[in-house]
Amino acid sequence: MPFGNTHNNFKLNYKVEEEFPDLSKHNNHMAKVLTKDIYAKLRDKQTPSGYTLDDVIQTGVDNPGHPFIMTVGCVAGDEESYEVFKDLLDPIISDRHGGYKPTDKHKTDLNFENLKGGDDLDPNYVLSSRVRTGRSIKGLTLPPHNSRGERRLIEKLSVEALTSLDGEFKGKYYPLKSMTDAEQEQLISDHFLFDKPVSPLLTCAGMARDWPDGRGIWHNDNKTFLVWVNEEDHLRVISMQQGGNMREVFKRFCTGLLKIEEIFKKHNHGFMWNEHLGYILTCPSNLGTGLRGGVHVKLPKLSTHAKFEEILTRLRLQKRGTGGVDTASVGGVFDISNADRLGSSEVEQVQLVVDGVKLMVEMEKKLEKGEAIDSMIPAQK
Amino acid sequence: MYENSEGMAQLTLKGLTAEDEFPDLSQHNNHMAKFLTLDMYTKLRERPTPNGFTIDGVIQTGVDNPGHPFIMTVGCVAGDEETYEVFKDLLDPIIEDRHGGYKPTDKHKTDLNSANLKGGDDLDPNYVLSSRVRTGRSVRGFCLPPHCSRGERRAVETLSIEALASLSGDLKGKYYALKNMTDAEQQQLIDDHFLFDKPVSPLLLASGMARDWPDARGIWHNDNKTFLVWVNEEDHLRVISMQKGGNMKEVFDRFCTGLTKIESLFKDRGHAFMWNEHLGYVLTCPSNLGTGLRAGVHVKLPHMSKNAKFEEVLKRMRLQKRGTGGVDTAAVGGVFDISNADRLGFSEVELVQMVVDGVRLLVDMEKRLEKGQSIDDIMPAQK
């Protein structure tokens, strides 16, 4: 739980050694980077909205590590967190985002026409395709820190923007707190419904406070474009469909996202963005594009091949279970997506997914026939 | 969350009012939801305690946990001693509702002289499997578990270890810090039913009491394994006296002796326990104010518990039932945890007396029902 400014000052009565967290069992990005010196330097600081260093790191203190993923171990409470706590966050960003430097510039490219191919991933293997990103509304604090009033304001602004969409984007908003059982069943069957976070990575950062107040799901009538309001970020924008036509998914994604941004801008609410970090989101791992473009793909043979991890690394891809970020895979079906977020554009990241998945499906087919895949192992992208 | 008036000013700049911030309590059934009004919230959000604890900090657990199937939860916590003063507009009515009409002007009586207990050494061990008395204590000068920093928590641990290390005789014992417990030590403590685990109850998690786990948490117990102290779980200290069987008197004797010794050891080190003549001992949860005492037994009542009058008997005896896993669990195999329902407005001796007398009666009733006899003639009056 975020501390008060008063209490943060009261803590200064205790020495650094007395307040510094015990990170001896920890293996996350925050624990790798945080030293007593950094802690000493930042402990008396706070953002204009009162977010402190202890707030930033609480989730990483409470969650030493994870069996499947190297967690970030810290969150932002507002846009200014990334500035006020840069001594901690810059090295974490660099470590997490492939050496990204404090002086680097990030490129945004949401022009779907720049994507090459992507409309022909084999649907016998690629079960579904999805692109998601997050957006934060400038001037309001983020889910770990925001008040009920701010959260409701985010919901109100989002609903106004979304209900003005038309054509293939015409849709409806379902607030979590007044959802009927029937609506809930349907949203679960459609794989749209997000539930109260149970992952301690999220709950320890305070993102589940006041659940389900101010939370909801909007989706278009066609059920191919949806927006989560006030889950881990202010907005999560998702384009998805069955099968392997990532091109179509990405086109809809870009079109819808740009429309939404335009509407928000008209009401004088931009999205948090800057030329160094790109789109500002709650988790430092999502900075830049905030984009995760992925597929659910059947790779029972390839996934048990000795070189699977190496191939993923070289293709700049990441695997997850089909339940999301910290789950295991089921039945040889993997969630394969881009590993990068910052330092490359949306188009570049989706291109990596399209090209990489195409290659892996070809490898899977070879392995099915008992053939070797050594000649197909790609160079490091 | 915005924790002070600067933060409040920030919210006002965004055009957000108390009404915009007021929680939606329409699905809620806890003490906090019963009493919190918009007017109250509007007034109380204007200032935090001197340590920066706000009304939102107080009520968060009640907002996040609308209700519970077995118990009427309090739905709020204190972050420091001053919480009970700064937020009295909300907490006084809750205290009154929870503690049988206890008024803001009432005085609470402390009595830790176990010689004042009558009987209690002969509850039938064929039915009463174990007896236990626990209370909590808060160390003045530190914030409480929902709000304390790592430094404060560690300071409470250090003081506790020093104080407990100087106990002797029947109370001589050892401290086991959670964070460097060996597997063997852990297994032993589980077998002894001593080990407390990281809280999983959302009632506790939502109020921030599990932060930094397991840092500065630990268990101390005497060599005889009949007296133990939990450090930095839901309260700074939880002091527990327990043993198999039905000799509640012995349990209470040890409890009072140990507790009084510990209090004087803390005082020697310049730290009193939080106490005042209105609220008695000040603890994290408003339900534990006063004595903070829960005296109880695990007792086999398979017939009685199915009897239509069970709840009525408990109520009249001022007793409460729980499952054998603790506050929000269900009973297993007809064995119930029966304890005093009151905490505030009665002394320690009075509360343990109610348990002793009440459990004796419940066991008598169980024996009657076993024989197919009626219990109507031994129904108690309302205590």
UniProtKB/TrEMBL annotation, chain A:
Keywords: ATP-binding, Kinase, Nucleotide-binding, Transferase. Residues 11-98 form the Phosphagen kinase N-terminal domain. This is creatine kinase. Belongs to the ATP:guanido phosphotransferase family. It holds the Pfam family ATP-gua_PtransN. GO terms for cellular component: extracellular space. It comes from Sparus aurata. One of its GO terms (molecular function) is creatine kinase activity. It comes from the Eukaryota. PROSITE patterns: PHOSPHAGEN_KINASE, PHOSPHAGEN_KINASE_C, PHOSPHAGEN_KINASE_N. InterPro entries: ATP-guanido_PTrfase (IPR000749), ATP-guanido_PTrfase_AS (IPR022415), ATP-guanido_PTrfase_cat (IPR022414), ATP-guanido_PTrfase_N (IPR022413), ATP-guanido_PTrfase_N_sf (IPR036802), Gln_synth/guanido_kin_cat_dom (IPR014746). ATP binds at residues 128-132, 191, 236, 292-296, 320-325. GO terms for biological process: phosphocreatine biosynthetic process. Residues 125-367 form the Phosphagen kinase C-terminal domain. Its EC number is 2.7.3.2.
From TrEMBL, chain B:
Residues 14-100 form the Phosphagen kinase N-terminal domain. One of its GO terms (biological process) is phosphocreatine biosynthetic process. ATP binds at residues 130-134, 193, 238, 294-298, 322-327. Keywords: ATP-binding, Kinase, Nucleotide-binding, Transferase. Pfam families: ATP-gua_Ptrans (PF00217), ATP-gua_PtransN (PF02807). Gene3D superfamilies: ATP:guanido phosphotransferase, N-terminal domain (1.10.135.10), Glutamine synthetase/guanido kinase, catalytic domain (3.30.590.10). Residues 127-369 form the Phosphagen kinase C-terminal domain. Belongs to the ATP:guanido phosphotransferase family. It catalyses: creatine + ATP = N-phosphocreatine + ADP + H(+). It comes from the Eukaryota. Its EC number is 2.7.3.2. The gene is CKB. GO terms for molecular function: ATP binding; creatine kinase activity. GO terms for cellular component: extracellular space. This is creatine kinase.
